[in-house]
Amino acid sequence: MLHDPAQLDLMFQALADPARRQMVDRLSRGPASVSQLAEPLAMSLSAVVQHLNVLEASGLVRTQKVGRVRTCQIEPKALRAAEHWINERRLAWERRLDRLGDFLAESE
Amino acid sequence: MLHDPAQLDLMFQALADPARRQMVDRLSRGPASVSQLAEPLAMSLSAVVQHLNVLEASGLVRTQKVGRVRTCQIEPKALRAAEHWINERRLAWERRLDRLGDFLAESE
DNA sequence: TCAACACTGAAGCATTTACTTAACTATTGC
DNA sequence: GCAATAGTTAAGTAAATGCTTCAGTGTTGA
């Protein structure tokens, strides 16, 4: 579910925008309402809602509305999926370098 | 240098495109020329070069030209920087959850 | 020397993105 | 009830993105 390429696509796309990363950063310190998320951002509330929708569609953020306030929180599983994608590629590269080093050492 | 927000911006932007992630994936298995990178992709060589320029500007990929072939490789430091950004936010969230759990347990 | 090769760069174009404003809905507190 | 609050939705727009084609440049091997 989380490793499906389409979802990964949405996640990396979501993280590509600085405003959305700032929102994720804010949420990493605890849940927040839409207005709280908007407060440090130099844009209309409407724009923030649109960013939030992108984040929610990507699975990085989960929200629930109680009364008139929508409370947002991070979905750590999704963050972990993105992290994992990068990590695997980096490790593959580094393992390759290690093997290469071993090979060169042996052929001394 | 690597934690500067502008660079982080370029990296996440670069990773947002599926073709570019495919290129990074390919490079994680070892260096490749531009044509080798292009081979599995359903687009012109020119388009691949443009993607490659984005990857290089982001610092995720380093290239060097020898004769007429440009050889590309991953820059693991840059991958690590992106990984680190995500990891820090996720950990902040999870630590917060832990503290909350402790608090609830104590107030029993 | 010259044709094939491996790119490179510029121009153009369709689509997507990141906003804006404005009009609207649903809650809440008094 | 009614005004303020909190968010939503739609429409429009300017800029960015992801391609394309085409016309190059420099390199290599026969």
Concise synopsis of the structure shown:
The structure is a homodimer of 108-residue chains. Chain A is built from five helices and three strands; from the N terminus they run ααβααββα.
Overview of this protein structure:
2 copies of one chain form a homodimer. In chain A, strand 2 (61-66) and strand 3 (69-74) form a beta hairpin. Chain A starts with a helix and ends with a helix. The longest helix of chain A is centred in the C-terminal third of the chain and has 31 residues, at 76-106. The first copy, chain A, has one domain (5-106): Arc Repressor Mutant, subunit A (Orthogonal Bundle), CATH 1.10.10. The first copy, chain A, has helices spanning 5-15, 18-28, 34-38, 45-58, 76-106; strands at residues 32-33, 61-66, 69-74. Chain A is of the alpha+beta class and 108 residues long. In chain A, strands 1-3-2 form a 3-stranded antiparallel β-sheet. Helices cover 67% and strands 13% of the residues of chain A. The first copy, chain A, binds a DNA duplex (30 and 30 nucleotides) through helix 4.
Write the layout of secondary structure elements.
The structure is a homodimer of 108-residue chains.
Chain A: H1 5-15, H2 18-28, E1 32-33, H3 34-38, H4 45-58, E2 61-66, E3 69-74, H5 76-106
Antiparallel strand pairs in A: 1-3, 2-3
Helix pairs in contact in A: 1-4
The first copy, chain A, binds a DNA duplex (30 and 30 nucleotides) through residues 17, 19, 33-35, 43-47, 49-51, 65, 67-70.
Per CATH, the superfamily of chain A is: Winged helix-like DNA-binding domain superfamily/Winged helix DNA-binding domain
What would you call the structural class of chain A?
alpha+beta
| Unreliable runs of chain A | none
Integer-rounded radius of gyration of chain A:
19 Å
Q: H/E order of the elements of chain A?
A: HHEHHEEH
CATH architecture annotation name of chain A: Orthogonal Bundle
Count of beta strands of chain A: 3
| CATH fold descriptor of chain A | Arc Repressor Mutant, subunit A
